Amino acid sequence: MSKKVLVVDDEPSIVTLLQYNLEQAGFEVVTANDGEEGMQKAIREQPDLMILDLMLPKMDGMEVCKQLRQQKMMIPILMLTAKDDEFDKVLGLELGADDYMTKPFSPREVLARIKAILRRIQSSQPAHEEEERQTLRIGNLEILPDHYEVYFNGERLELTPKEFELLVYLAKHKGRVLTRDQLLSAVWNYDFAGDTRIVDVHISHLREKIEQNTKKPLYIKTIRGLGYKLEEPKGDD
Amino acid sequence: MSKKVLVVDDEPSIVTLLQYNLEQAGFEVVTANDGEEGMQKAIREQPDLMILDLMLPKMDGMEVCKQLRQQKMMIPILMLTAKDDEFDKVLGLELGADDYMTKPFSPREVLARIKAILRRIQSSQPAHEEEERQTLRIGNLEILPDHYEVYFNGERLELTPKEFELLVYLAKHKGRVLTRDQLLSAVWNYDFAGDTRIVDVHISHLREKIEQNTKKPLYIKTIRGLGYKLEEPKGDD
DNA sequence: CATCTTTTATCGAATATGGAGGAACATATG
DNA sequence: CATATGTTCCTCCATATTCGATAAAAGATG
């Protein structure tokens, strides 16, 4: 889900600055130090966006931009111009850059622009339309992932985000036993297989809300030594 | 039964943006990158409406417009002007454009204009528009997108443009959780490079007006870590 | 008695909000 | 017609507040 950004500049300090800030903001960053390398990486790495300095060794930014466009690479480009030169700006945009920015700039500014461009392009997956309307049903539970709502016997339950995501994940894998590690990596994004009982706590919270009256849990079963699973309640319903 | 729209612009990002949003709204989209291609496609594809940039390679928008009219092509045209240039606007309209719009614009704005034009053109045909013509109702809220009016318990509310647009978008996706980015990309101009948190401010202003007396918001709910959603107020009414 | 559940307290992060600055627009004035 | 003046609205920022995540500890269960 994280976007890949290619930074092309010959000034190491600029590259470092951008790389650091972009990574902080959750982007994946690839760098290049001259125009030729920039071209190659633009093609090979297929980044979601490119930050391109105008003045570059071997091949300047304008040329890179032009050649990429000729090759029908429609990757969004944020052009960096060293001075406030109207002429260059206009030229850059005509060559197909999506935005420009004059040095010096603040990290905040760069991030804002990048987000604006990505937003504008909207390359974010418009394909998910079928998944949108779905309703997950388990017993008397009704889960609407889009609406962030859960109903139990038609009554709305108030769940915290973690509880909600945990439940959705369990529901999407109804009947299957899921280990704590699986749940951790799916809901928490923890990569390690550490020993943590956080899952237990949230399972407990969930049960509090969806197992209203019962003594033994009907929905979320504990599989001792393994993990948990959500299943269709036995008996009548 | 979907309408066909021809988008003529030389800026790839604008074309992409419009195409995406129009397709989302159920239009069929054809694109062209310069004036000549635009002319050809206007004739060959017989679109129901044309979005035409003023500044174009090979043949500018004004010229395209003029030639089409001379050929008795009465296709509705929505003109895009890069800068706020009164002269161009007037000229464009005199040449037979049906409406104009200055860049930058917000996606919602374009859609509204397009629908307005189409409605105006074929006011004879009773359309089955589910979207624009109806009034949106949520609880005691009544929203008339066309009239730019909102009523709460029958009383007219004074909303600023941003507040209004935001509310309409929320209302059209009633119940759905919308992230700040989604709201930004729908309601704000495509080149807005500011802070995502601006959404919070306008939400706050909206709540001030539509959540009159209540402690907890009834209409606009905050989904922590995600965004906001507008929903039917709980309880009865 | 080991495992699972519940409770409690604390910390940190996300959100709400008031106010300042400034741009855009409208109206008044020369 | 161009320049003032005023107003509205948008955006940003700083501060206050709310709320959830988590660790630790106490309690329950088989």
Number of domains of chain A: 2
- The mean pLDDT of chain A is 83
Number of strands of chain A: 12
- CATH evolutionary superfamily of the largest domain in chain A: Response regulator
Based on helices, strands and strand pairing, what is the structural class of chain A? alpha/beta
**Spatial strand arrangement across the major sheet of chain A:** 2-1-3-4-5
Q: Can you tell me the overall shape of chain A? A: elongated
CATH architecture of the largest domain in chain A: 3-Layer(aba) Sandwich
Computed CA radius of gyration of chain A, to the nearest angstrom: 25 Å
How would you classify the quaternary structure? homodimer
CATH fold group of the largest domain in chain A: Rossmann fold
Low-confidence stretches of chain A: 123-131
- Summarize the helix and strand pattern of chain A as letters: EHEHEHEHEHHEEEEHEHHEE
Beta-strand residue fraction of chain A: 15-25%
Mind explaining what this structure looks like?
Chain A is of the alpha/beta class and 237 residues long. Chain A has 2 domains: 4-123, Response regulator (Rossmann fold); 129-230, Winged helix-like DNA-binding domain superfamily/Winged helix DNA-binding domain (Arc Repressor Mutant, subunit A, Orthogonal Bundle). Chain A is built from 9 helices and 12 strands. The first copy, chain A, has helices at residues 12-24, 35-45, 61-70, 86-94, 107-121, 129-132, 161-172, 180-188, 198-210, and strands at residues 4-8, 28-32, 49-53, 77-81, 99-102, 136-138, 141-144, 149-152, 155-157, 178-179, 220-223, 227-230. Chain A has a 5-stranded parallel beta sheet with strand order 2-1-3-4-5, with helices on both faces. In chain A, strand 8 (149-152) and strand 9 (155-157) form a beta hairpin. Chain A is elongated, with a radius of gyration of 25 Å. Chain A starts with a strand and ends in a 7-residue tail after the last strand. At the A-B interface, helix 5 of A face helix 1 and helix 7 of B. Chain B binds a DNA duplex (30 and 30 nucleotides) through helix 6 and helix 8.
